[in-house]
Amino acid sequence: MGRLWRDDRLAEHHMAIVVGGGQSGLATAYYLRRFKVDFLILDNQEEPGGAWLHAWPSLTLFSAAEFSNLPGWPVPQYPGYPPARHVIDYLTSYERRYDLPVRCPVHVRSVSHDGGMFFLDSTEGQFTAEHVVAATGTWSAPFVPHYPGTFRGRQRHSSTYPGPDPFRGAKIAVVGGDSGPNLGGHCRASSST
User: Fold this and answer.
1) What is the pTM for the complete model shown?
2) Burial class (CB in 10 A: 0-12, 13-18, 19+), 129
3) Three-state secondary structure along the chain?
4) What would the pLDDT profile of 14-72 be if each residue is shown by its tens digit?
5) Residue 160: pLDDT band with limits 50, 70, 90
6) Does position 3 have pLDDT exceeding 70, yes or no?
């Protein structure tokens, strides 16, 4: 399992390392396990659940449970759109069910490639791998676009949404893809959207 790091320190080696233990990371790990690839998942969260751990209280899946499965195992039934806690419980059970090798919390500081090998530097030491899968999502580094012109209001990304209360009586515009309609619906009752 050991392999020398570039400066002669010993690094932990795997055929593949998945950076991120949310839905994409777990789905990737399912197939790595199925094809008997030596792999490790490095996740920066304290517990399973990925970005769902940081969701606003009223966030739900944007589809019914039966359309939101990871490979190999369906999401347990839920009437309507499952809330964050249902998804977190499913991801936690999925990780256990397939005995996925997740190490957390591990923050990957850098990934570099040299001579056919990836080198990962993290808060838990160094790792090497022939393959790296980036499954980190966007929650920890949200993109807030710049809009030309004058805007005196406050822009927020859905990752910092505190719930509808701070927007009571305010005029707001909700712009966005999957999260936009969800947030707009929650704010509609308490503001002018």
Assistant:
1) 0.84
2) buried
3) CEEECCCCCEEEEEEEEEECCCHHHHHHHHHHHHCCCCEEEECCCCCCCHHHHHCCCCCECCCCHHHCCECCECCCCCCCCCEHHHHHHHHHHHHHHCCCCEECCCCEEEEEEECCEEEEEECCEEEEEEEEEECCCCCCCCCCCCCCCCCCCCCCCHHHCCCCHHHCCCECCCCCCCHHHHHHHHHHCCCEC
4) 999 999 999 999 999 999 999 999 999 999 999 999 888 988 878 888 888 999 999 99
5) confident
6) no
Q: Rounded CA gap, 71 and 24, in Å?
A: 10
The answer to whether 58 and 186 are in contact (CB under 8 A) is yes
